[in-house]
């Protein structure tokens, strides 16, 4: 097997177990080193491709043939036509419909306002926070709120810079801040009456979601265009109430 | 004697649910990397499994279910999504410029790889995704993509070669090689 053929096969499938490829690999130290390098890179590639967070309860929804709970019932394709016509208008409509169609109660709206006020108030504190917190520090705060975060490598690799207790809607809660793709992302888990249905945060600066979450509520607030559903999926997978 | 309609329905439901349990994660990952957007990926997966439910009887061998679902998903992506989606709408792409320099190395590495894979030419990215997520052989990928095996192997070579040139700098570059030469 010449070098070009060998190189082609090593890159096309570094885990090739065909006899001729295995023999060609062991024929020289340079070839062995090349395969080892590509296999090491491939491990990172596989890890990255498979690191995509799976939406919570997706299997259950597929079995019941129900549409995604996180978005309006209208087809996403229709939305894209609208977006092509006017992205700005579409975003505005979606934001305002998010609040209206969910039909939150007065208490739910109060939680919405309290949560935003809390995030704005705490921002100077978490903006100056430096080092990553340890898993124990994070779980200590979550335990105070009545929950527990199961070990999750995807969360552990995040830059979590702030964790503190909070009180919202007369309930105890945990306020965790991590570094997202667009800036800080606040995750508030509050042991309080769950909101009637999930709805979007309506704020000129932040995007966010308020989600009924078992014994309480999960509130995620980040900069506009932050992919919040990723954090929702991770938290939904890893968090459990222990009250 | 054949099953009653009730038993047929129950059998179909059980078969479908087993299919969902076994494959929904891989199908979602593939959908995500095809369209690079979580919400659209979920729509694609919903549509894929809905179509799978409707035509489950046409799946003769459950061992071929993954390739069958991936093929449905590709078709739905092309039908519903690729034709209409403006190229600029890519809200979940990671931007290297947004990264915090103090992030742990592992996180930075994963984000850079995420970006690099997401921006690979689609012709190169798709075979790589099918190999990594689907675990398909070159021959199986060729069948799914309706290509010949040599073309698939060349595209896999190109995909990893481009990632290697970014993440293992200093090695030989294969950019000057013609695809035609490689496929011979």
Could you give the distance between the termini of chain B? 55 Å
Number of separate structural domains of chain A: 2
| Count of helical regions of chain B | 8
Q: How are helices and strands ordered from N to C of chain A? A: HHHHHHHHEHEEEEEEHE
**SSE topology string of chain B:** HHHHHHHH
Q: What is the fold-level CATH name, i.e. the topology of the largest domain in chain B?
A: Rna Polymerase Sigma Factor, Chain: A
Overall tally of structural domains of chain B: 2
Report the β-strand fraction of chain B as a percent range. under 5%
Task: Note the main sheet of chain A.
Answer: 6 strands, antiparallel
Question: How many β-strand stretches of chain A?
Answer: 8
User: Strands of the biggest beta sheet of chain A: in what spatial order?
Assistant: 2-3-4-7-6-5
Structural class of chain A: alpha+beta
Topology:
The complex is a heterodimer of chains A (243) and B (184).
Chain A: H1 3-12, H2 19-25, H3 29-49, H4 58-64, H5 76-85, H6 87-102, H7 106-127, H8 135-144, E1 147-149, H9 153-156, E2 160-168, E3 171-179, E4 184-190, E5 199-200, E6 206-213, E7 216-223, H10 228-238, E8 239-241
Antiparallel strand pairs in A: 1-8, 2-3, 3-4, 4-7, 5-6, 6-7
Helix pairs in contact in A: 1-3, 5-6
Chain B: H1 5-35, H2 38-54, H3 65-82, H4 105-118, H5 122-132, H6 138-145, H7 149-167, H8 179-183
Helix pairs in contact in B: 1-2, 1-3, 2-3, 5-7, 6-7
Structural summary, described in words:
With about 240 residues, chain A is of the alpha+beta class. Chain A is built from ten helices and eight strands. Chain A has helices at about 5-10, 20-25, 30-50, 60-65, 75-85, 85-100, 105-125, 135-145, 155, 230-240; strands spanning about 145-150, 160-170, 170-180, 185-190, 200, 205-215, 215-225, 240. In chain A, α1 (about 5-10) packs parallel to α3 and α5 (about 75-85) packs across α6 (about 85-100). Chain A is elongated. Residues about 65-75, about 85-95 and about 95-100 of chain A have low confidence and may be disordered. Chain B folds into two domains: about 1-95, Orthogonal Bundle (Rna Polymerase Sigma Factor, Chain: A); about 105-185, Arc Repressor Mutant, subunit A (Orthogonal Bundle). Chain B is about 65% helix and about 0% strand. Chain B has eight helices and no strands. In chain B, α1 runs antiparallel to α2, α2 (about 40-55) packs across α3 (about 65-80) and α5 crosses α7. Residues about 85-100 of chain B have low confidence and may be disordered. The interface between A and B is large, with 53 and 63 residues.
């Amino acid at each position: 097997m010449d070098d070009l053929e060998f190189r082609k096969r090593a890159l096309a499938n570094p885990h090739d177990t065909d006899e001729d490829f295995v023999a060609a690999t062991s024929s020289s130290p340079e070839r062995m080193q090349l395969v080892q390098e590509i296999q090491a890179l491939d491990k990172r590639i596989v890890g990255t491709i498979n690191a995509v967070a799976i939406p919570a309860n997706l299997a259950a929804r597929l079995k019941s043939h129900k549409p995604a709970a996180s978005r309006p019932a209208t087809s996403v394709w229709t939305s894209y036509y609208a977006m092509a016509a006017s992205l700005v208008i579409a975003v505005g409509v979606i934001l305002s419909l998010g609040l209206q169609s969910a039909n939150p109660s007065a208490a739910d709206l109060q939680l919405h306002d309290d949560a935003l006020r809390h995030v704005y108030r705490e921002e100077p504190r978490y903006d100056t926070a430096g080092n990553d917190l340890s898993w124990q520090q994070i779980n200590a705060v979550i335990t105070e709120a009545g929950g527990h975060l199961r070990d999750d490598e995807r969360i552990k690799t995040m830059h979590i810079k702030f964790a503190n207790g909070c009180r919202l809607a007369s309930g105890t809660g945990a306020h965790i801040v991590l570094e997202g793709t667009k800036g800080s992302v606040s995750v508030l888990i509050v042991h309080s009456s769950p909101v009637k249905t999930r709805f979007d945060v309506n704020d000129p600066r932040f995007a966010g979601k308020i989600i009924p979450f078992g014994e309480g509520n999960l509130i995620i607030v980040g900069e506009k265009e932050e992919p919040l559903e990723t954090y929702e999926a991770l938290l939904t997978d890893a968090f459990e109430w222990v009250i | 004697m054949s099953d009653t309609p009730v038993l047929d329905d129950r059998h179909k439901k059980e078969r479908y649910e087993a299919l969902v349990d076994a494959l929904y994660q891989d199908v979602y990952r593939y959908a995500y990397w095809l369209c690079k957007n979580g919400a659209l990926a979920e729509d694609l997966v919903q549509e894929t499994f809905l179509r799978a439910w409707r035509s489950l009887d046409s799946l003769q061998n459950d061992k071929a279910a993954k390739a069958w679902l991936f093929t449905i998903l590709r078709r739905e992506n092309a039908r519903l999504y690729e034709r209409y989606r403006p190229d600029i709408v890519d809200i979940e792409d990671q931007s290297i410029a947004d990264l915090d320099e103090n992030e742990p190395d592992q996180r930075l590495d994963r984000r850079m790889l995420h970006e690099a894979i997401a921006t690979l030419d689609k012709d190169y990215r798709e075979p790589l995704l099918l190999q990594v997520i689907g675990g398909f052989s070159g021959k199986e990928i060729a069948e799914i993509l309706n290509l010949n095996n040599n073309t698939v192997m060349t595209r896999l070579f190109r995909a990893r070669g481009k990632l290697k040139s970014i993440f293992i700098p200093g090695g030989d570059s294969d950019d000057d090689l013609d695809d035609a030469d490689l496929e011979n």
